[in-house]
Design a protein that fits this description.
It contains five helices and five strands, in the order βαβαβαββαα. The chain is α/β, with parallel strands linked by helices. It has a single domain, classed as 3-Layer(aba) Sandwich (Glutaredoxin), CATH 3.40.30. It is globular. The termini are far apart. It comes from Mycolicibacterium pulveris (Mycobacterium pulveris). Participates in various redox reactions through the reversible oxidation of its active center dithiol to a disulfide and catalyzes dithiol-disulfide exchange reactions. Pfam families: Thioredoxin.
């Protein structure tokens, strides 16, 4: 599956209606964003069951502000609607592949349960 450009209106549905969603916050004037784009697109092709979304921070300034984007590119990863990774900077291909694999293995439900157990003590 190719990458998908999403807007503020599509953002919540995209992260909530899909198991795993990687979101690349970028801008057309950003050199590192341009350099990261082929890596992101190649990973999207390699993992058709994962949603690779792109948010143009210039066109979606309110969404970028709501997501607290301070530097681009910023990569956010959601699993079952929960933010599990948030990092500014372009990842090299091997690191992005490792991240996708770790997110696949990550049990977000167990992590939430453990977090909730810790809050009740």
């Amino acid at each position: 599956m190719a990458t998908k450009d999403i807007t503020a209106e599509e953002f919540n549905d995209t992260i909530n209606d899909n198991e795993i969603v990687l979101v690349d916050f970028w801008a057309s004037w950003c050199g590192p964003c341009k350099a990261f784009a082929p890596t992101f697109a190649a990973s999207a092709e390699a993992h058709p069951d994962v949603v690779f979304a792109k948010v143009d921070t210039e066109a979606e300034q309110e969404l970028a502000a709501a997501a607290d984007i301070r530097s681009i590119p910023t990569l956010m990863v959601f699993k079952k609607g929960k933010l599990v990774f948030n990092q500014a900077g372009a990842l090299p291909p091997a690191a992005l592949e490792e991240l996708v694999q770790k997110v696949r293995e990550f049990d977000v439900d167990a992590a939430i349960a453990a977090q909730n157990d810790g809050q009740t003590e």
